[in-house]
Amino acid sequence: MLSRVADNLYWFGRYLQRAENTARIVNVHGHLIFDLPRQVEFGWLPLVQILGQEEQFRERYNGDSGEAQIMRFLLLDEQNPASIISSLQHAREILRTIRECAPREVWERLNDLHYLLQEKGDKALSRSKRQEFLQQIIDGALLMYGMIGANMSTDVGYHFLRIGASIEQADMTTRIIDVRSSSLIKPKAAEDLAPFQNIQWMGVLRSLMAYQMFRRHVRGRVNGPNVLRFLLQNREFPRSVTYCLNAISQTLPRLPPDRPLQRTLDRCRALVMDADVDRLMLGGISEVMDEIQLGLADVHAGVSKAWFQAA
Q: N or C: the chain end with fewer CB closer than 10 Å?
C-alpha cells in the first residue's frame, strides 16, 4: 500500500472519531443543565477547552463565551479544525480520494452527514433542535463504524484506520477527564460544589457513553477514583485509554516492524497503567493527563515517521 493511502486512512479514522466525540460531549453537556440547581453556574467554555481550541475561540469571537457562540464554533465553524463540520469535511475529502479502499456505503453515509450539516446545521444552534441534530451525527458515525467493521477487508489499510481511531479516542478520553472533572461546574461558593461531585463524574462517563458499562464493571459508587480507574485502566471498555493503546499494540505485528514505535507505545501504556488514581484525586489529574497526551503525541509522531514520511 502507498504511504499516502495509509496516511489518508489513518486520518480518516481520526476525523470520524473526532466528529462523533465532539457531538457526544456537546449533547451530554446540554443534558446536565437539567441536573443542576440554579445556584450552580453552568459553564460552556469547558467544551472548547476539551478540544484544545480556547485561544483560537477567543480570537475569533472576541472573548464572548456565550452558549450561542460556542455552539457555532464547535458545530459549524469551518475555521475551527476541531469542529464537527471541519472534521466531517476532512474525512469526506480523504475518502473521496481513496473511495476504492472503503465500502461504498460508508461514502454514501458520510455524504448524508455532510449535507445534513449544510442544510440543517444552523437549526442546531437552538436548544430545541440541537439534541435531535447531534444524535443524527452520532448515529451516522456509529453506523459508519459498523459498516467498516462488517464490510471492510481487514488488510493493511484497515489496520491504519484502526490505529488512527484508537489514538484519537484515547486522546479525547484524557481531554474529557482533564477538563470536565475540573471546570464543568462553577459554584458560587466552594461548599456548593460538594453535593454535585457525583453528577460531575457521571457527566464524564456519559460524555464517553460509559455509564452503563461502568455500572457493569464497577461494583461501587460513581466517584472520582472509580471513574478514573475505569476510564484510564480498564482493559475491556473500548473508550478507555488502556483499551485503545492495547488495540494499537495488537495491530502493530500486522504492519512492517518498527521497534522505536513499539518502545514509545510501551512507555505510554506503562504511564497509564502505573497511574496512582488515589493520588491523582489529591490534585494531580491535569499533570498526568498532560503527560499521557504528550505520550500519545509521541505515538502519533512514531506512526508518521515509521510509515508515512518519505525516507
A: C
Could you report the per-residue pLDDT of 199-223, keeping only the tens digit for each?
778 888 988 899 999 999 988 788 8
Q: What whole-number distance in Å separates Cα of residue 85 and Cα of residue 121? A: 9
What are 221-236's pLDDT values in tens digits?
A: 888 889 999 999 999 9
Using CA atoms, how far residue 14 sits from 58, 87, 161, 167, in Å, is: 25, 9, 8, 7
Can you give the pTM of this predicted structure?
0.90
Q: Which three cell numbers stand for residue 227?
A: 471513574
172, 17 in Cβ contact below 8 A?
yes
The DSSP letter of residue 239 is T
| Rounded CA separation 72/54 (Å) | 14
The answer to whether the CB of 17 falls within 8 A of the CB of 82 is no
- Residue 186, strand partner residues: 41
Q: How far is CA 174 from the centre of its chain?
A: 9
Place of cell 514505535: 261
